[in-house]
User: Fold these one by one.
Assistant:
Number 1:
Amino acid sequence: MTGYRKIGRPLSAAWSCRSGAAGMMVLCLVAVSSALAQQDGSVNAAGLAAAPVCSNNKGEQVEFSSSDRGRPGLAAGMAIRDASGKPVVLRSNFAAAPREFQQFIDRHECAHHQTGDVDRPHPARNGPDHLMNESVSDCVAIRRLRDEEGFGKPSFDKVAAALRADMAKIGFPESSIASRIRNLSGCFANPASAHDLITQVLQQRGLPLP
Ligand SMILES: [Zn+2]
């Protein structure tokens, strides 16, 4: 989810993890095996946000699962296919994040499935293609929250504040943080829908539309 899926650091907030970093892959697999029982159909016992409707560009339903693994105090998400090939979003440490940010991470990770990122070769870490994928997922996520969940400016500000805090905690420079929030803000202000953007990306990539 956020920024930048393939950074070789511990899970970054909202950045999905299809990382080549060995430690991260171990984490992903462990999380898959232990957490799928906690599927979120609504607000769950732990008070986490309900998982959104999500299917990928091939029409496969994406499942969400939660764990407390990952870096303590840092909410994160990963968009991957599990060992059986099923598309999943793994949530970690969501209880550490404000509800609005939980909702954002879920939709950001879902967008990596919706745009086909998960099934494509991973672009170079923090290269332009990678950053573009992250910007697209951020944009899809914030527009879904605006159009489907009624997010206004106060909720947007909560997402931006949580994102800023987590990125700073991870060690991203202010320039990266500001750039990301600028992109989010522009997407939020633009009346185009998440669906419009997903369609555009899939068409550019020559991928099937759902
Ligand atoms: Zn991402």
Number 2:
Amino acid sequence: MTRIGAVLAGLGVVAASALAVAPQAAADHPSEGGGSLGAPEDLDGRWASPTPVGKKVCPTKSFWVGDGWGVSRGSRKHRGIDLAADRGTPIFAVEDGRINRTKRQANGALQIVLKGASGPKYYYGHMDEVFISGGDKVVAGQVIGTMGDSGSPGAVHLHFEYWKSGRESAAVNPKKFVTRICRL
Ligand SMILES: [Zn+2]
């Protein structure tokens, strides 16, 4: 009897201290436990998407343009455009659609393929974080990841490809498209 009582009392103490500690811990780390989905309502505007052009949204913001289409990559040619900004810059869904796949490539690069409702697919590479999974529905301007250098250590940027017809083999030079939807 006494022993059980002591055990229960012990449990009670543990539970009470756990409850007491939880809010304290949260208060000590206000940046943890929220915001990782890139809620657009964040007041600091960090996650706010660019203004749409028609129904399309620039895939990132506050960037400068690096290598473009056709630049040599050893034995291959560069099939996209590189948009560089600070690590953690949000990456946006270009249009309403569905996530075709997300994957970490053998070289560590994180990739996202978004199938747009209007037909094309958009390929995003080198993210730091990815907030969606294959099969997820997304809306234009939704934050789907953050810019990083996965698979490209030390060179933080978004590698962006435009598969205009929806087929990977049909990647086209995305410069005009990006110029238009990013208002360059
Ligand atoms: Zn690239």
